[in-house]
Design brief:
- Two copies of one chain form a homodimer.
- With about 375 residues, chain A is an alpha/beta fold.
- Chain A contains 14 helices and eleven strands.
- At the A-B interface, helix 3, helix 4, strand 7 and strand 8 of A face helix 3, helix 4, strand 7 and strand 8 of B.
Amino acid sequence: MRRVNVPLAGRSYSIYAGQGLLARLGEHCRRLRLGERCAVLTDRNVEPLYAGRALDALRAAGFDPLLVTVPAGEGAKHLKVVAQCYDQLAAHRLERRSFVVALGGGVVGDLAGFVAATFLRGIDFVQVPTTLLAQVDSSVGGKVGVNLRAGKNLVGAFHQPRVVLCDLDTLASLPDREYRAGLAEVIKYGIIRDARLFGLLERRMPGLLRREPALLSDVVVRCCRIKADVVGADETEGGVRAILNFGHTLGHALEAVSRYGRYLHGEAISIGQVLAARLSSENLGLPHREASRIVRLFEAAGLPVEVRLNRSQRRALVDAMRHDKKVSGGVVKFVLAPRLGEARYGIALATEQVERAIAEAGKVASWRR
Amino acid sequence: MRRVNVPLAGRSYSIYAGQGLLARLGEHCRRLRLGERCAVLTDRNVEPLYAGRALDALRAAGFDPLLVTVPAGEGAKHLKVVAQCYDQLAAHRLERRSFVVALGGGVVGDLAGFVAATFLRGIDFVQVPTTLLAQVDSSVGGKVGVNLRAGKNLVGAFHQPRVVLCDLDTLASLPDREYRAGLAEVIKYGIIRDARLFGLLERRMPGLLRREPALLSDVVVRCCRIKADVVGADETEGGVRAILNFGHTLGHALEAVSRYGRYLHGEAISIGQVLAARLSSENLGLPHREASRIVRLFEAAGLPVEVRLNRSQRRALVDAMRHDKKVSGGVVKFVLAPRLGEARYGIALATEQVERAIAEAGKVASWRR
């Protein structure tokens, strides 16, 4: 078991990564002196796999857990589901000292975190991410929230977990497509902050796709350390934290336009990062060779790197970007990389340039060579 | 115009109280460098009276305000209304630098504050309270939220306003019953923190009921100062802030049991404070004479001091108290006053004692003599 600290004045917490952590959930909660009554929030896919173990571990440590199961998929990040969760917590009489355990992927973490952030004006919560994407990204940093029809994550809060337990064993049950989607965030850390990690991923992608435990553990911990660093420097995204959104402006728009159905988040930001690499070359001089390495690494991970859209679809996409939370004064700002391992945020680009880049994104396979 | 500072590290703000402040709303927002796009959230009662002036003031200062009108009354503190507000803010493309103006009473402030606390993970908001209760209590301190069927304010956040503008002119349009309800919170400050204020209220109640401007201004500022002091010492109610809940445990339960229909909040906490005075005499030795003065002052303000309930209604009331956010480990804790001008919090009482006191609350008129 390895540990990463997230340094936040007064609300610091630890991320643990290792095998068999789910069985130690109760013990960790006990050490944090959390209240007796609690809720384990999970989805219909994860429930049959891990909910029993989580509840047992909590009961063995003297807690009184309620199980709350929501539908699987992005659709659960909806205000109606939030309202149903509140009602269940109220019926189980959760109190101010009570806590919520998020057991599942990014959707469960975002939803459970938002419920915890707002129930009784905020109660504690614990993240037990069971997908690669959630372990390296969404479970760390305190961004929680749900979607509106107008866009993704438009409602939410900053609410830090008390502890994050990344049980690597839970990744074994992850469908291949979801595992690969998680790799899109892993690759992102290499691009924005760690050229050596990027190189490791290039060399060891086959082993990583086989989910070799030692390699996986190393990669998860390195990603968490980068995220913890960035979040520790800028908790509420006043500045540098924005670099974590590399590829996300287009990615979110793509998810919104396709109504969160066609692409997994990781797939959408894979395409988004390839576009961001292209815009980085055009605007910040990212060497062509490095942009090509980026495209090839996403391809090696089995992720989509291009999208073919007609003109009205492109328009809808650009329109969706204007709805992004990161918009300020009507200008869409991007995170771009001047070189592998470094990112700059707040780069305003003309709508026309973005539209043109999207139009040519269909030809990325030719462009990257 | 007088000014009270609310001292909160990094998020300090000012409360202004005086006449003609609504016309200066835009100017205040400009000084705080808030973003151009904004929303004025108000209810159907307040809209025809003051929304035009608020919008004009904002437009004159260069802002682009959207008007959002919700139904009047406690029923608006509902998640469905929250969702409707989000959709309107998204359609008007509010951004991270945008802000929400809460124009109305406590319900509007709580609702608008919660919307602002959670839209785009939190945007700025400005309080323009137009009722006495909101001016002296709910607009200050950052407690925002909505109700669940299971209880009042069970969902919410701590989200401090950037400024509070108490325009005393707006109190002129307040129905008499609502004005008196606001006096219940005014009297509370005297009981828990300021025996001299209590004495002033005893002497000047007729003038206060006539809404004499100089007296009203003095009283509003004194109350805001007390609230600012308490909130500054304990923003998130870890300790002393709890004294502000004097009379509220029973008051909230009474509102919940009567489905927020029969009593205004101020009326419910008037009855709650009389009960708390009784429990204070029994448990902390509050002199009988002072308890009587408390009852008489609420009566002088034209507020209800007793409630007649049958046995099953009493049971429902005690049950509702157990649902209160302030419950910990299943024990109902009270705020009680050992003497006028001082309060203690976290006093655990046996359910039987509370039930008996409620049973005798119907006879309070005889008890107080």
